[in-house]
Design goal:
Helix content is about 20%, strand content about 40%. By secondary structure, it is an alpha+beta fold. The protein has an 18-stranded mixed sheet that branches. α2 crosses α6 and α3 packs antiparallel against α5 (about 180-190).
Length: about 290
């Protein structure tokens, strides 16, 4: 049995107890995929990450697990990983940039610093709209009717994980939603998606978009704050020329309904790439014996 450094972070969080919790195994050398999956199942957090020595061209390598599966990319784990490698001395912030290695490839990371401290931003894998699987059409219609949004714009996007995205128009519709979890789980299992995300515009306040994300097929009824879903939504709106007043940079609110109101900074750069970032809070520092 080895003792390994362990962190638990709140990502996209202005304070401890907000945002999305993330388990971080700092010294993951020697753990195989089965052990990583077992640890992620044990932490029972939406994601647990494992930091490993990188290959050439990267500053660090990360593997990302939900309680049930490994993901090629996820947003809050990537932002948290960048914060953790700086905090733990595995990489250095010289030059204000890093390169993350994950199953989705090599991803640039920007290390922004303001009065709230280090706020990493990661460039998400480029999202693409994928064709609806033939066996999913009925499940999509069922979910949209259950959402009360039969005519709402919707799409299946791939930016590492697959996300169903639905635009409900207004933040109020997002906030008031009672999600049809059984129907969403059926849709995700039929299409291979990790979850379904909804969004709506917020006319006032400190954010421009309200987002919620549901992953019941993966054992997560509602995810507090979801970077990959926010990146998929931004890429979808940009690709459809529907950003409108949001512009190329905005703040999204997610997690309020769970008491974990987080903030995701979203930026679409001149090349159309989506960056997501935010504040990170260290809540637990300890060791793991496994």
């Amino acid at each position: 049995m080895l003792t390994r450094r362990y962190l638990q972070l709140d990502v996209f969080a202005a304070r401890p107890g907000a945002g999305n919790p993330l388990g971080v195994i700092v010294d993951a050398d020697g753990l195989d995929a089965a052990a990583m999956q077992a640890i992620a199942n044990w932490t029972n957090l939406s994601e647990t990450i494992f930091l490993l020595p990188p290959d050439a061209g990267a500053d660090y390598r990360v593997r990302i697990f939900t309680p049930r599966q490994e993901l090629p990319f996820a947003g809050h784990p990537s932002v948290g990983a960048a914060w953790a490698v700086i905090d733990q001395g595995l990489a250095h912030a010289d030059g204000g940039a890093l390169v993350q290695q994950c199953a989705a490839g090599l991803l640039p990371v920007r290390l922004d610093v303001d009065g709230h401290g280090l706020q990493p931003a990661v460039r998400a894998p480029r999202a693409r709209v994928v064709a609806m699987p033939a066996n999913s059409a009925g499940a999509v219609d069922t979910v949209l009717r259950a959402l009360g949004a039969a005519a709402a714009p919707h799409a299946l996007l791939d930016n590492g994980p697959l996300w169903w995205c639905v635009d409900l128009g207004a933040a109020g519709a997002v906030r008031a939603l009672a999600p049809p979890l059984a129907e969403i789980a059926t849709l995700c299992l039929a299409s291979g998606a990790v979850g379904l995300a909804v969004c709506g515009r917020a006319p006032t306040g400190d954010h421009a978009l309200a987002v919620r994300a549901f992953c019941p097929a993966d054992g997560i009824p509602e995810d507090p704050v979801t970077g990959s879903a926010n990146a998929a939504i931004a890429a979808w709106l940009h690709g459809d020329s529907r950003l409108g007043d949001l512009g190329p940079g905005y703040v999204a609110s997610q997690g309020r309904e769970l008491g974990r109101d987080g903030r995701v900074s979203v930026e679409i750069d001149a090349e159309g790439e989506v960056w997501i970032g935010g504040q990170v809070q260290a809540v637990i520092r300890g060791t793991l014996d496994w």
